[in-house]
Sequence to fold (252 residues):
Amino acid sequence: MARRPFIAGNWKMNKGPNEADELARELKSALAGNTAVDVAVAPPSISIPAVAARLQHTGIQVAAQDLHPQVSGAFTGQISGEMIRQLGVAYALCGHSERRALFGDTDVIVNAKVKAAFRAGLLPVLCVGETLEQRDGGQVEAVIEAQLSGGLEGLEADQVAAVTLAYEPVWAIGTGRTASPAQAQEVHAFIRGWLGRYPDYVARTVRIQYGGSVKPGNAAELLAQPDIDGALVGGAALNAESFAAIVAAATA
Ligand code: 13P
Fold:
């Protein structure tokens, strides 16, 4: 059976509660006819209540951009999966490259977050991707492999099957320089092959999103690749019309 496309928007640190509610309202109408694509948006955590309320019963799911591995405790400024789950959130991004580069999320921490997401009843979206330096140094597969084995360490096959993976080459994020469909497909196929260490159904089931300067103009070509099952969209997800166009491209 074909994998159902999954398009997610990562709003990063954009859209406070008021603007987030407005964008959610626009998305609700722009995506009203969608039945073929799984869609989620990841607002800043402070805007989640407004967005979750606005998107109730629309089929558009809400994702958290991050979570703390612990349930509760003396972790000033942090939010746990259990707290996020109370708002009806379905997914949690784990190990986004900005978390890795700017906030010290190592593979060990990312793995703890993936496990915390499952513990809280959230589905993890595990982000992986190489820097330009690593690509130029011929290390793409080694880097992705380390991020996959580190991030998924200790999970049961059924849990791995429920994870969404997002391949986001760091050099393509926010740069307008997207990976070519062939470049992206090559890494997606590598990831799918790597999943072959689990029982067969796992590699067949796991959805692998591409992320990095996905726009309405390049989405269809990327999403047509056999191992690209969706997209994790940054900048173009901040506009309802362009995000809806990317969702539409997933059904083409
Ligand atoms: P852009 O689409 O802005 O390049 O961001 C991609 C991304 O990091 C999504 O998580």
User: Anything to note?
Assistant: Residues 157 and 198 are 6 Å apart (CA to CA). Residues 10, 96, 168, 173-174, 211-214, 232-236 surround 1,3-dihydroxyacetonephosphate (CB under 6 Å).
